[in-house]
Amino acid sequence: MSPEAEKTRREFLEEALRQHPDNTFARYGLALELAKSEPAAAWTHFEYLLLHHPEYSATYFQAGMFLRKQGRLAEARTVLATGVEVTGRQRKQHAQAGLQAALDDLNERN
């Protein structure tokens, strides 16, 4: 994707958050966009979602993988384990299995 298209997506998500700061989907999307080039900024959005929207289960996998990539392995384990619990309560078996596999992989490799 061209840098112009990336910028446009980021700008769209930032505008959506300016209009609706509690828009979980826009905040999640912006975190994913920022993870590519601005990890500190990305983490602020992941952390916001984890703290203010703990039932937004999509966050756990991506936040856990982000932390792993950043070398923050203990935090990654905590986020993934919490995600396993949350998705279990929500009966989202597919998401729970993915989180558990990521957690198991992290524990085996590191």
How would you describe what is shown here?
The chain has 110 residues and is mainly alpha-helical. It has a single domain, classed as Serine Threonine Protein Phosphatase 5, Tetratricopeptide repeat (Alpha Horseshoe), CATH 1.25.40.10. It is globular, with a radius of gyration of 14 Å. It has six helices and no strands.
Question: How do you describe this structure in short?
Answer:
The chain is 81% helix and 0% strand. It has six helices and no strands.
Describe how the helices and strands are arranged.
Blueprint: H1 3-19, H2 24-35, H3 39-52, H4 58-69, H5 73-89, H6 93-109
Percent strand equals under 5%
Radius of gyration: 14 Å
- Biggest sheet features: none
Q: Which structural category do the helix and sheet elements fall into? A: mainly alpha
Give the terminus-to-terminus CA distance: 33 Å
Q: What is the share of helical residues?
A: over 70%
Task: Tell me the number of helical segments per DSSP (H or I, 4 or more residues long).
Answer: 6
Low-confidence stretches: none
| CATH homologous superfamily caption | Tetratricopeptide repeat domain
Give the beta-strand count: 0
Integer average pLDDT? 94
CATH topology: Serine Threonine Protein Phosphatase 5, Tetratricopeptide repeat
Number of domains: 1
CATH C-level name: Mainly Alpha
* Helix/strand order: HHHHHH
The CATH architecture would be Alpha Horseshoe
Overall shape: it is: globular
